Amino acid sequence: MTPAVGDNRNMTAAWQRGREELLHELRELESRMRREYSAALDLISELELRNAAAESGYPSLSELLRDVLRITPREAKRRIDHASAVTEVPLTSGGSLPAPLPATGAAAREGVLGPDHVDVIARSLTGLPLHVGPDAIADAEQTMVTAAASMDARTLARVGARVRALLDQDGAPPNDTELANPANELHLTTRPNGRTAFRGELEPEASALLRALLSPLAKPRPSTGGGPDVRTPAERNGDALVDILHLAADSAGLPAEAGEKPHLLVTVALQTLRDGIGAARLDSAGDLDAAAARRIACDCKVIPAVLGSGSEPLDVGRASYTVSTALRRALVLRDGGCAFPGCDRPHGWCHSHHIRHWVDGGRTELNNLLLLCGHHHRLLHHSEWECAVVDGRPEFRPPRYIDPDRNPRRNGLFPCRQ
Questions:
Q1: In the listed set 108, 136, 167, which residue is the last one of a domain according to the structure?
Q2: Residue 32 to residue 37: CA distance in whole angstroms
């Protein structure tokens, strides 16, 4: 490839240039791309004025741009909106109609602002109440354009929020319908691996309630022999949400569906539970490994069933709890909460764990049971930690990579354990 006249970028390989030279060239290239984007907006504005879409047989300019530029309809609409915001419109009678955001357009043409900056400025200064005059909007725009010269669009959005709050101190007038029936949304998508992705939004009161519920559950766990809590804030919030789901599932006030309270249905062969090899079926989430099925079966309601050679049900027994209510109360009296060393989760958040699993012949009795929160229940089933009841109290031995001597540990955080 022969470089253009006056363009020395390709004359010297990138690895032969210094760091400052590379960064300078990168900045220049970014500025050039922004100026070219601004020039593209001028072309889009002119196409809009000429009604080019209809002349080309397209229902809208965004559809035309999608095919010509091979961009998504969303990106096409974004560029059309930008063109409308920063480009002045010539009038047939002479003169022109100024752009809604002239300072933004000027800065974009100079290569100072990129498309994301334009997005933020337009969102911040569009839809203001009528009492906000054009001079105030112009001053606010100049403030944001000046700020944008030294920050990215995400940081600029904070400046925009403050600017808008000053221009419109009363905010949007309340909508009586929305106040009476606030809109809450939750979109759920189950992935092939059984995990669920979700997005949505809650009205302010529900948002505050969610944060209040998450906050005590999302605290970093106390430091143990394995070190401090290494979870990110997002992971702590995710684990807290799971805790809330378990608390809700144990609530006596949950509504019934098909005659039963909400529950997880796990279908697993008895041999799979005994051997710990194979897979189980988790209702609405797909396959579940045998180790996870054993953990769930520790503290659950069991329905025995006999299947024929074609997996048809031949006999279905009655459901029975693996841990009775009376035995659960005894566990609460002994352990107080999660028995794992250093854990402060109260008993209402805990599962009843069989030290020797009942499918392996372990007895459902006090000396073979202890309370564990969801996190430490999973840890016991999927790690090298070991536990036992010694002298009437739960005792744990850590893996050798935590303590080479595997000295026993107990949890003394709850008063009844002292």
A1: 167
A2: 9
pLDDT mean over 119-144: 91
pLDDT score of 89: 82
Kindly report the pTM of this predicted structure: 0.46
For the segment 322-337, what is each residue's pLDDT rounded down to a tens digit? 678 888 888 888 898 8
How large is the angle between the packed helices 19-49 and 73-86, nearest 10 degrees? 80
Domain boundary (167, 199, 222) is at: 167
Q: Decide: 350 and 373 in contact? Cβ < 8 Å.
A: yes
Domain that holds residue 154: 22-167
Position with higher pLDDT, 148 vs 4: 148
Kindly state whether residue 200 falls inside one of the protein's structural domains: no
As a whole number of angstroms, the distance between CA 182 and CA 278 comes to 46
Instruction: Kindly state the average pLDDT of the residues 103-110.
Output: 95
Whether 265 is covered by a domain: the verdict is no
Residue 245 domain-assigned (yes or no): no
N-to-C CA span, the chain: 80
Residue 367 C-beta-side C-alpha neighbours within 13 Å? 4
CA torsion angle for 109, 51, 85, 74 (degrees, to 10)?
-100
